[in-house]
Amino acid sequence: MPITSQARSFDAAAADYAANRPSYPSELLNAVEELAGFPLQGARVADIGAGTGLATMLLRDRGANVIAVEPGPGMASQFRLGLPDVPLVIGDGDNLPLASASIDVLTYAQAWHWTDQRRSVPEALRVLHTGGALALWWNDSDSTVPWIAGQDARLRRLFGADDSPHDPTARFRGLPAELGFVHRHLPWTRSVPLDMHLANLASYSDFLVLGREATTTFMAKERDVLAEVFPNEIVEENYVVSLAVATC
Asked: pTM value?
């Protein structure tokens, strides 16, 4: 399935995405400010691939003057329900609907890998003014935790993926070296009900294109496995945010 089709699969599950996906730790924006070299408060920030607004909300609450860019109409509708006061335009990272040299910080929260770097890099450089910052980040489960490693192995078998554990440096491979990205890894946790953990898992693009029946079958089995690990049915999810920031 083409990347654009897989990315747009989120539209059908926008409400579930908004209800169950994890946000990000406060340390993330602290690190963005440190690596960018200036505060986000008062900065002109464009959040690209904003989805339902998980990152946009944090940026707004930090005091940024933020505008969201989202390609999917379903996700955009959900965004407007949660953040009616934040400007939102339809568009994507390969063709930004933003004026040249108009933005202090461009953020891609789990969205950069959906772009074509041959187009998204020149677009980012066009939109950022001199001294601006490009911040990319991904939130991945921490596969060094035994129960997560087990779940990852089951997911790889389900989807026929390479049977190697997740490499925390993998997110940074292929980024344009000429931009001089600086990298950080930020571990964090959240505790959620077991059913919320499974609903979050089901909102990922691989499951959205897998189909309801196969997803339901996998989630029922996964619930039985995790109920033994977490008998109180409260799951401690462990994550690592991979952050890359370049100043332009």
From this structure: 0.90
